[in-house]
Amino acid sequence: MSFSLETLTELVDFNQQSLLLSAFAIAFNPTFWNIVARREYRTKFLTRAFGSAQTACYGLAATIFSLGLLRDFLYERALRDQPSHPLLQGELPTYAGYTLLALGNLLVISSTWQLGITGTFLGDYFGILMDGMVTGFPFNVTNAPMYYGSTMSFLGTSLLYGKPAGLLLTAEVLVVYLVAIQFENPFTAGIYAKREQQRAKLGHKVEGKKEL
Ligand SMILES: *[C@@H]1O[C@H](CO)[C@@H](O)[C@H](O)[C@H]1NC(C)=O
Predict the structure, then answer these.
(1) Cβ–Cβ < 8 Å for 8, 82
(2) Cα distance between residue 161 and residue 184, in whole Å
(3) Is pLDDT above 80 for 211?
(4) Ligand 1 pocket: which of 113, 114, 135, 141 to mutate (most atoms <8 Å of CB)?
(5) Residues 31/36/40/41 CA torsion (nearest 10 deg)
(6) What is the domain partition of the chain in residue ranges?
């Protein structure tokens, strides 16, 4: 135990403030958007502030996107302050790093393409629901392409830099996203279930009218 801890402190320089800042940003972002989105769902405070649900959702999307850029910037800055490791350097890790970055970006970009801006950025909390479930690529490969794609990009970047600290921060990204999935998916499922109930009710009414 003490051996592995000592090894870890050799591989990762925990005295760098940039490491803590990066770790903080990674945990902060999903926490932020979940708190804001649930508050919006309960109180519609953003819809009221922006004048419409659509505009409010775009505003939140721009904010989340900017926070993501900041988080990526802090991650790369943290890696530059960290020691390298020979096992992560050389051709193989470099090729693996580029491959992971390409696949990760493919997952993120294709899922944004499929869902659109409001579908990607928590539109359901604003009452902007998708017509139906998206089942095409990349959703036929993974149920959370955005999160797994982003995690792959973090891993790829850590390999390109050859920094063990990157692996540690990538592990944090994965844990944070797994927690987010546990938190978000039941809520989203609840929002859609409610819509189905309302649709069923409306359907009854329409059918009732027809009979008259
Ligand atoms: C997912 O869909 C894409 C495009 O529709 C298809 O090419 C691919 O084979 C599918 N993958 C799986 C695992 O079903």
Answers:
(1) no
(2) 32
(3) no
(4) 141
(5) 0
(6) 2-211
